[in-house]
Amino acid sequence: MYTYKRVIRCRNMVEVEIYKSIREVGKSYGGRGVNKSLSPKKQRIANRIRTARKWEQVIDMNFDENDYFCRFSAPFGTFESEEKFMRCVRNFFKRIKRQADKLGVEFKYIGFRECGKLGKNWHMHIILSDKIMKIAKACWYYKNGGMNFEPLYSSHNYEKLAEYIRKDLTDKENEQYPAKKRMMASRNLERPEVVVKKCSRSEIRKLERGEYIKPPKGFYLVSDEFEFNINDVTGASWYFKYRPTAFRSFEKGIF
Fold first, then answer.
1. Beta-ladder partners of 14
2. For residue 186, with 0-12 CB atoms within 10 Å meaning exposed, 13-18 middle and 19 or more buried, which class applies?
3. Which of 133, 124, 126 is nearest to 109 (CA)?
4. Out of 59, 142, 151, 176, which could bridge 158 as a Cys pair, Cβ 3.0 to 4.6 Å?
């Protein structure tokens, strides 16, 4: 059994994971095997948490309080299927890209598409930079369909926003099957710096005594982002999240 320390550095957040693995990092084992350590229900929960954290990191790396969480809607009944709506969205993105290239602005986005309960109210929620938001506002076809723009919080706390963005459709008849994902993200998004190394015995002993890993300089431990878990196969694991001390006075924002 190997014990590793994974440090994930974003622009305004540092995450530290201490975990045990039956495989050695960097060593080939002839392909990825099936994870049988968790039940299907527990695995879905673990996947949801992991995915939300991943997108929180990506949001933090690419956007800030100057940018916007936007909603673009088509009038009720305009699109009868997701495929037709997506053709409209792809053309919309092409128009934005052309205008952005002319202005020398990079077009980045993260979001998802969804439909109302009646199946005729297709729309999308999407994070855009300030300059791209202005371009998108002018490019959207349906001015009477509805547009909404909310600035991201200056606390740089995107946890709830990441959870909202990654929400999936649930198969109501059988939850064992994976939900249909409707996330959308550009390929030019920056990713956080990730460093994985073996965890020292002294750090493990501190964690087992109930102590936490000292925050990096200029950061503080987010009290409700400390986790301790027990896996049936690999044993104990720890997770810590640190934010800049300068943001400590901000309220815990969503978006």
1. 9, 242
2. middle
3. 126
4. 59
DSSP H/E element including 164: helix 159-165
Count other C-beta atoms under 10 Å from residue 110's C-beta.
Answer: 23
pTM: predicted TM-score of the whole model, two decimal places = 0.84
Distances, alpha carbon 75 to alpha carbons 72, 91, 94, 121, in Å? 10, 17, 21, 7
Helix and strand counts by DSSP (H, E) for the chain: 5, 11
Task: Kindly list the distances between the CA atom of residue 70 and the CA atoms of 24, 53, 128, 151, 253, in Å, as whole numbers in the listed order.
Answer: 43, 21, 7, 9, 17
Cβ neighbours of residue 113 under 8 Å, at least 6 residues apart? 82, 85, 86, 89, 122, 123, 124, 182, 184
Residue with tokens 């229900």, as numbered in its chain: 41
Question: In the 8-state DSSP scheme, what is residue 152?
Answer: P
Cα 207 from Cα 124, distance rounded (Å): 43
Q: Residue 199 corresponds to which tokens in the numbers above?
A: 């965890």
pLDDT in tens, the chain (255 residues): 789 999 999 999 999 999 888 777 767 655 555 555 555 677 777 778 888 899 999 999 999 999 999 999 999 989 988 899 999 999 999 999 999 999 999 999 999 998 887 778 899 999 999 999 999 999 999 987 789 999 998 888 898 999 888 876 544 444 444 445 688 999 999 999 999 999 988 888 888 888 888 899 999 998 766 777 766 556 678 999 999 998 876 644 433
